[in-house]
Amino acid sequence: MASNRTELNQRIWQVVTSIPEGKVSTYGDIARFAGLPGAARRVGYALRQLPEGSKVPWHRVINAQGCISLPAGSEGEYTQRERLEAEGVRVCGGKVALREFGWQP
Predict the structure, then answer these.
(1) Which of 1, 8, 91, 102 meets the CB 3.0–4.6 Å disulfide criterion with 98?
(2) How far apart (Å, rounded) are the C-alpha atoms in residues 55 and 14?
(3) Pair 31, 43: CB distance under 8 Å
(4) How many CB atoms are located within 10 Å of the residue 90 CB?
(5) What is the CATH number of the domain that holds 9?
């Protein structure tokens, strides 16, 4: 079972790694691109399992409404916003314009 979880994490991380700088994708889209349609929550789980110091650009994953899902005012929300803005992604009120910045392979 653990190796299955590791394999799923690897598939999800691979998709997230392919999101280009300056673009974002949703948890649901990442699940679909990884062959796991309907498993958006599984994507969140995989991102929480990233090893310390990982280069996977987790900050490029947002929810289906275009919002940062981390709690407002949290260190994680601040980090995600800062990383997105550093890549040229506009974040207004915790929200990203998916039509402008959304990515699909």
Answers:
(1) 102
(2) 11
(3) yes
(4) 11
(5) 1.10.10.10
Neighbours of 63 (CB within 10 A): 15
Whether pTM > 0.70 for this model: the answer is yes
Residue 59: both structure tokens together: 């900050």
**H or E element, residue 87:** none
Q: How far apart are CA 68 and CA 80, in angstroms?
A: 8
The total domain count for the chain is: 1
Per-block average pLDDT, block size 10, for the chain (105 residues)? 83 98 98 97 96 96 96 94 98 94 93
Tokens of 26: 């949703």
